[in-house]
Amino acid sequence: MSSTNRQNRLLLAEDWKKVYQSFRNAEFKSYDFDNLRRTMINYLRQNYPEDFNDYIESSEYLALIDLIAFLGQNLAFRVDLNARENFLELAERRESILRLARLLSYSPKRNQCANGLLKFESIATSEDIVDSNGTNLASQTILWNDPSNINWREQFEKVLNAALPVNSPVGKPIKKDNVEGIPTDQYRFDSSNSDVPVYTFSKNVDGKNMQFQVVSTNVEEGVISEEAPLPGNNLAFLYRDDGRGPGSTNSGYFAHFRQGTLDQGTFNVDSPSTNQSISLEATNINNTDLWLYKLNSIGAEEEAWTKVDSVEGNNIVYNSLRKSVRNIFGTLSKTQDKVDLIFSDGTFGNLPQGTFRVYYRTSINDQYNIVPADLVAISVSIPYTSKTGNPESLTISLELKYTVDNATVSETNASIRQNAPSTYYTQNRMVTGEDYQVSPLSISQEIIKTKSVNRTSSGISRYYDLLDSTGKYSSTNLYGADGIIYKDKFTEKTSFTFSTKTDVQGVIANQITPILSQKQMLNYYLTNFPKTLVADLGAKWSQKTTTTNQATGSFVDVANSPLQVGTFTSSALKFIEPGTLLKFVAPTGQHFMADNSHKLMIGNADHPNAITYKWVKVVSVTGDGRTDNADGTGPIILNDIIPTNAVLSELRPKFSKTLLSDVQSQIVDQVFAYKTFGLRYDVNLRQWRMITQNNLDITSEFSTGKTGDVTDQQLDSSWLLLFETDGEKYTITSRGQRYIFESNEEIRFYYDSTSKIFDNRTGQIIKDKISILSINRQPDSTNAFTVDYPWEISKEYRDGDGYIDSKKVEITFFDSDSDGVVDDPETFVTLVDETTNPLTKYIFQKKYTTSDGIEDYKYMDNSSNSVQIKQSEGVVGALSQYTDGQVFYLVTEDVFKIYSSTAGTLALTTDYKAYVGRDGLKFHYIHSADDDSRIDPSSSNIIDTYLLTRTYDTNFRQYLNGTITNKPLPPSSDNLFNNYGAEINKIKSISDDVIYHPVKYKVLFGEKADAQVQANIKIVKNPDQVVNDNDIKARVISAINEYFALENWDFGDSFHFSEMATYVMNQVAPDLVNIVIVPKQDSQGFGSLYEIKSESDEVFISGATVDDVAIIDAITASKLKASGNVVTTTTTTTSGVTSGSSYTSATVSSTSSSSTSSSSSSSSSSSSGGGGSSGSGY
User: Fold this and answer.
1) Phi/psi at 536 (nearest 5 deg)?
2) In terms of pLDDT, which residue wins out, 472 or 331?
3) Residue 777: what pLDDT?
4) What are phi and psi of 1098, to 5 degrees?
5) Cα–Cα distance between 693 and 711 in angstroms, integer?
6) d(CA 218, CA 433)
7) Exposure string (b/e) for 150-178, b if CB count within 10 Å is 16 or more?
8) Is 265 helix (H, G, I), strand (E, B) or coil?
9) In 3-state terms, what secondary structure has residue 900?
10) What angle do CA 1145, 1150, 1153 make, to 5 degrees?
11) Is pLDDT at 644 greater than 90 in this prediction?
12) 486: which strand partners?
């Protein structure tokens, strides 16, 4: 539907809507000055030719005609203007729009103030209070979760209890509730105030000084809100505990705050009338904070009147309140966010009579975000009376712990025009599918686009824990027998521009350092750097003490003499320091047991839990590693138990993820000199070092043979990060290696890399993992493994179009304690053993076309030798022995060829890919979902509602145009629920359970897009037109931005380049004759981005700028290429993705792009990595 609407809106020259609009807005010429003047003169000439014949311009008769024509035009204009103000679509005056909306029973929304929770960071009291240690706490500042004070909790609660009522101390709240899975308790101070408990403070937010107020906090039915203001009421606050410890931002004591100023007004009604209204002339009264009280004879608040949420027409008799509630009123929004109070008719509600007081909050009518740094060091002093009757004061320091982004401006005229008819259609309830598509838009002006999808449940008992088979909301524990694992070496590109030294330092902190911390970088280091073998040293482990998963001891030689380690020796043991990986093997004739015994056993490792080696990490080293500590522990601590006499055979020096200050300074200097340079990892120093341009080899594949070479002969190809510039911006190319796990038929994987699941019992992150089961056979053997081999899932897998493929996930070596050091870097080698019978260690993928017309690759079973693997074409032998269509993978040439019996030759084919790996694996897949994400099984319908918020939209567009540097994140599901759940729950069906999903933008083309969807836009100008290059580039970008306007797209839509090209051509013609997009990624060819899908929680936006537009003379292969040569022969051997004749690689100054290096044929000789090479790189 969205595609049809988009094409009708953008591509059709004329449709019935436009025709009707043009007729309705037509100018009736007979009512303008010239036509009226002409008509009157003609009338006089025809009817009074003898009496009036003086038509010269100076005639007084013509002056009168001019005056009449002028008056007629004014009257016509006013009549037309007033007529337009009677139609919601045409009205311009705010007052008219508000009145017309009320006719449709729609209440336009006023501004919404920013509001949230402030956490108690410290407290202090003037009262003499003594803790259990006899410490007087008077005037002492007690910090929440103070690591330097072991008694902080006791002291904190003692001080709080002093200001709480005797019958409601800490642990005995006055109210309990649950807010989004977090237990929430309400407490109330025993304060001695006589006015409304509101505490005002000022802070600078977004460059503006704003007034805020700490208010009394209420929790009701899972919603946190402000209590109604009432003089003499005591301040209420909350205690929340999310189970993640006192350091969690959602654990502790909290108070509610709101932006704005609470005001009040008093009025008297002596002679009430039906549907009476009272005007409040204050401006910027926000949408929610308004309360009405009737006063008693002494002027005190006696009774609170109930506010009706919406006004139907001009009265409030239609509402959802109980019949017994008769003291009701409503509000009518006016211009400048003024308000009229509307009362009932005396039949369905009481008429107001007597004296009333109204409380209301005026707020800044603006949209802004409040970050935690904006609201810190907020001090509130609360007077209270001690248990001994003395006046005391409690001082609380509060801070904001999360970003608040719920402030909104008054609903715009355009929004009212759209939402009023939609709300009238839904009748303010959500029952049908269409209701769920439009009703959320009327909840808040912050919601600018929405989409809902229904998932049906069976309506079973609420006491049954309903499982979500997709894994999104429920944990899964599944087994499969079609596992495929393979490795993929790749390069990834990102770019940056700079003006000052600070810019470059920001790039180091925000772009370079995160690259060094990526799993793919660590994988590359562990797999491709040389092994450090130490078996010749004869070093053995001598165990001293053991604890749970930890051992202490030292290394001894064959004579049991202690060995020095670290900086005290020049042998390979110098690498033994915290973070180093050590591989121990069992002595000859023995093996390790992988069970809890951690012991050596005599015999072969051919039974369950028997292993021949163990990897451990060095936790700490004392001195030179030879002298025991005073407490009896050994000088070296390992993170697992290693028995005495285990032999040290190999070590992996620690991998640093930070840059030294001198290297950072060198980067700044090189960047400002516009030099090409690289960064390598020096294993001997365990530091990142620079490779200058004179020593840098950017054409050869990775090698440590010449690492550190300074002969100025460009021999060092050991770079892991390459920095290149075109004189305007820098492109960073990083080398990496990833491991892919796939289940072709049985299992579909769900993984969200942005969501981390925390186990509050262990204090650890719960990881999704895939274990290769021990029942699988060892490589090239009939024997089974003796233990399972776990992998942790690190990332969802995206195909060439950036779409998540649920058959696959990216995995990495398991890191059980999440300390950045893996448990076993040889897991892949153990499972595959690619050096033995290497021609049997490939898995293949074959090209296919999806139902959407997209070309992709999927796993193919090669058990029948559909693809024969040969070392080179020279060993293929006589072609006549093969059947027509036989496919060959030639390892040395790294290409696929297919036999044609007709031609009697081998021809290149791009229909296959090859990777080093293994298939047919039996595996165990475990996915963990948050315990707080639980589906209500009693609902008959589960509605997934996707929301795009205005704040995220505004911030993201500012990010694209460079106004802000950090990429904005969409609000969390919890934020959406807290901000809009209460209002949506009022109108949803009782049988429906709404799940809230934030929508994020999917950027296309520009440097801020993901690697897979970056592209250059190449255009051909019309040679017959004279047009400036910069002008036509700007017009192309303008047309693309119009095409990607938010109203043209729905969540989950597919992008088709042909559609965009048609629109751009229509807009820029006749100056433009052709337009194409050319991918920037080395592994993608021309046309690979002609169709792109978005996820259900994504919507497209263009990130292209004029820098991404290039003008070419014609659409030819040479004009489309980006780097390297257009391949027309098979002599080029690389590690690209595909092989084929006349293939054009399409990358131009790649930004955030990546190129894989699977073992298959390719078109570009500039790719790094080598297909078919050893996985370990040793």
Assistant:
1) -70, -15
2) 331
3) 94
4) -130, 150
5) 11
6) 34
7) eebeebbbbbbbbbbeeebeeeebeeebe
8) strand
9) strand
10) 90
11) yes
12) 740, 917
pLDDT in tens, 387-396: 888 999 999 9
Distance linking the first and last C-alpha atoms of the chain: 56
Q: Output phi, psi for 377, to 5 deg.
A: 50, 45
Overall size of the chain counted in residues: 1178
Q: Which residues contact 990 (CB under 8 A, 6 or more apart)?
A: none
Residue 847 DSSP symbol? E
Residue 560, amino acid: N
- Continuous segment of H or E residues that includes residue 986: helix 982-987
Answer whether 1081's CB lies under 8 Å from 1138's CB: no
Tokens of 812: 């990495």
Do residues 1032 and 1019 touch, judged by C-beta distance below 8 A?
yes
Asked if 261 contacts 283 with a C-beta cutoff of 8 angstroms, the reply is no
Query: For residue 453, which amino acid is it?
Result: V
Q: Which residues share a beta bridge with 1075?
A: 1019
424 burial (CB, 10 Å; 0-12 / 13-18 / 19+) is: middle
Please, are residues 340 and 330 in contact by the beta-carbon 8 Å criterion?
A: no
The answer to whether residue 1144 scores a pLDDT higher than 50 is: no
1084/1080 Cα distance (integer angstroms): 8
How many Å apart are CA 242 and CA 182, to the nearest integer?
A: 5
- Is residue 591 within 8 A of residue 605, CB to CB? The reply is yes
Q: What is the pLDDT of residue 1088?
A: 74
Question: Phi, psi (5° rounding) for residue 508?
Answer: -60, -45
C-beta separation of 680 from 695 below 8 A: no
Residues paired with residue 220 on neighbouring β-strands, in sequence order: 223
Give the start-end residues of each E strand in 1022-1107.
1054-1056, 1072-1079, 1091-1093, 1098-1102
Per-residue model confidence as pLDDT tens digits over 66-96? 898 889 888 888 888 888 888 888 898 999 9
Q: Rg for the chain (alpha carbons), in Å?
A: 37
Which has the closest alpha carbon to 976: 440, 437, 289? 440
Q: What is the b/e burial string over 392-418, where b = at least 16 CB atoms within 10 angstroms of the residue's CB? A: bebbbbbbbbbbbbbbbbbbebebbbb
- Name the token pair of 625: 């590693």
pLDDT tops 70 at residue 706: yes
Instruction: pLDDT band for 1139, please (50, 70, 90 cuts).
Output: very low
What is the residue type of 443?
I
Contact 199, 191 (CB under 8 A): no
Tokens of 188: 């109330």
> Among residues 628, 643, 549, 631, which one has the least CA distance to residue 587?
643
Do 195 and 241 contact (CB within 8 A), yes or no? no
